[in-house]
Every structure is written in C-alpha cells, then in structure tokens.
Amino acid sequence: xxxxxxxxxxxxxxxxxxxxxxxxxxxxxxxxxxxxxxxxxxxxxxxxxxxxxxxxxxxxxxxxxxxxxxxxxxxxxxxxxxxxxxxxxxxxxxxxxxxxxxxxxxxxxxxxxxxxxxxxxxxxxxxxxxxxxxxxxxxxxxxxxxxxxxxxxxxxxxxxxxxxxxxxxxxxxxxxxxxxxxxxxxxxxxxxxxxxxxxxxxxxxxxxxxxxxxxxxxxxxxxxxxxxxxxxxxxxxxxxxxxxxxxxxxxxxxxxxxxxxxxxxxxxxxxxxxxxxxxxxxxxxxxxxxxxxxxxxxxxxxxxxxxxxxxxxxxxxxxxxxxxxxxxxxxxxxxxxxxxxxxxxxxxxxxxxxxxxxxxxxxxxxxxxxxxxxxxxxxxxxxxxxxxxxxxxxxxxxxxxxxxxxxxxxxxxxxxxxxxxxxxxxxxxxxxxxxxxxxxxxxxxxxxxxxxxxxxxxxxxxxxxxxxxx
Length: 470
Hints:
Strand order of the largest sheet: 1-4-3-2-5-11-7-14
Helix content: 25-40%
Number of helices: 19
Number of strands: 20
Strand content: 15-25%
Structural class: alpha/beta
C-alpha cells in the first residue's frame, strides 16, 4: 500500500466530523437543472485561506467563470475547515457574494484528522463525493491555492451540457510570492473580480515558474520522483506537456469507480471523458511557496523510461493511457503549429517508451508469480537495456506467449546467458517479438493452460519457445 493509499484508509477510520451549514436558497427565478454540482474545498491556516479569498475566488468571479457556470445549474459549495478558521471564512465579503448564486456549507474537520493533511483532504473529497452521489449530480474538487483564467468554468459548463461525465485537467505550479505580485500589479479594488485571459495567465505563470515545474522539463537533470507530468518547452510560446496519471477534476460519482489512490477504476465510456488540452479553453495556476516539495527533485536523475514506468505502475489505472495520449498545450501566444507538432511527436515517442517499460514491468512481476523466472529475467534485462521498446511493435492490447522455465531448458545450453550479453540485442529483440502478437488472439493456442488477463493483455504460458532467427 502506498503512503497515499494509507492516508486515505486512515481518513476513513477517522471519527465523524461535526457539520455546520450556512445555506441559501437558490435565487428566485433561476433555472435549476438536474445534475447539481457539489464543489468542495478543504482549507485551513492563514496562508491557504488568504490564497482562497484573495486569489482563487476573485478569479472565479470573473464573468466567464462562476457567474456563467451557476446561471443554469445548482451548485453546492462545501468548505471543510478547522473550528478556529470558520469565522474568517463565513464572514468574508467574497463568501457572502457567492451566497447569491450557490448554497454554501461548512464542515468542521476533527483536530486529529488535521495532523495528516493528505488524509484530511481525502476525507473531505470522499464526503463530498458521497453527497454528490446522493444528489445524483457531479463533484468538483477545488483546491484553495489556485488562480483561474476567465472563461474556464464557462468551458466546463459547455462540456457538461455536451454529455461529458468526467473532466480531467491539471495545473501549472507557480512560485506564489512573485506570481501574486505580478498578477496584482495593475489597479484594482479589493472586492473586484480578477479577470485575466488564459494567455495572460500562462505568460505570468511561466515568468514565475516553480522549481518543481522546471525540474519536470524533459532533459532536466533532476526529474522529480513523482513524474506525473513531463514538459517539452517551445521557446517564447509555452509548454507542451503529457500527463501520466491524474485524478478526475469534475465527474459523476455514480458513473465511475475509484481505486485506493482515487484514480479511475474499472470500465468506462471514452465518449463521456474529456481532458482539457488547450489553455485557451481552461487554465489554472497552482500556487506554492518556493521550497514546497523540494525533496521531490533533489536527486540527480534524468528522465528514464524504466524508472518512470515503475512509478506509473504504482499509480495504475485503466484510464492512464487515455490521459497520456492527450497532447496538452499551455501557450502565452498563438501556437507555431509546425514546432508544436514536432515537440508533440517527441512526446509520443517518449511516452510510448515509458508505457512499454511499464507493461514490461507488469509482465515481469506476473512471470515471477507464475513461476516463469527465466522469462522474468529476460524481460527485466530487455527493459533496463532499452531493448523492449525497440522490439515491441504496434500499440494497444497484445497476446503474449510467456515461456515457462521448461521451455528455456529445451534451448541449447548457455543460450539464455548469451541473449543477456552486450552485442546480442538483435537476437533478443527477435525472441521478444516472436512471443508478442499485436491484438488479442481469439483462437485457442497450443497450450493446455487457460490464458491469464494481465491489464489489457492476454498471457498464455507455453512450454516451448517460439521460433526466432538467432
């Protein structure tokens, strides 16, 4: 169990919290459609509350955000906080302004839960997920320390109206002090909405880039130990990025199951899913102080597909490959199409290598469990020498013929050792290719053992190696 999973389990064991509600009826005359949205924020402490009240909510009051989003739908805003912080939030002028268009509920978090911030957030998200499920609507996770471009929530409304049931997005992290100073440089009354376009917001964020984001640039000597995002820079324009694993941002909890890491579990309809892929449609900046998560990128290491594949497998979800295929553009200017496509093709190639390494590691672990230790040895060698990605052809599900130890005993002596020596990459590639068939073979194969489903792949254990040219 990962630490994230452990924190989630701990939060579910925590005692039931006390709930205090400040509710307002929907304004008279406002149309209330089915599919209410439960918006949830977990926030406590001076720094985070200041970001919520002075940055997040003012940008959400821009005309193309909450005023547009709440026009034709019911929104319930659930704020989870600690007892001492509730008065500041409840009496804030901007919270009172939100009451004109939505219902607001406060929930007090138990002191013992606050000792583990991750568990506290997961507790809040789960409680709101359950509430949204009861309302037969949607849940939207709203971090407190975020700034939004104008038009972002209008775009969300359009996606919901078009039938999307799950929306994914991700944030660019900026250093909070310099970003706040830059965004507030112009004249503005304290209670006015903060209105800024996606391109303006991208430009400011790139000037105030947090070190964690800089470490995630492809080619960085300090790729983070949590490489959930990778960036390809386009000089003077922005960042092309790929996301490997992501929680849903807005979704129908009655439609999707979650695993312990709160990622999508089970089957899903791709037509109901959307990943925000252009900052012109929606863009948000996550604010963090300079030293936040510094331990994630202190170790010197390059972007290695095998290491990334290992991390990716720890955050496994059937939707990860769908997410990783999205070519996301964060740009401060119009895109130079040829240059962006060149970087996106580079992203395609690298992400494929990571995915092949991930599936190879999945197969290696399964081979060990099946008692096929010789095959596991071959696969591990091929992964870490970069041979597997060159050997595998095609994309998507495969039929894998996994040789048993008996199959390798039928080979000439020393053959296995020779395959794992430098200079024999060609022979090893041919061996691997002979045992991987693109697609799921429907006809029975010459083995007495039933196939095993391994992720998207079908595995047959065979007692003879397939023919390949040495």
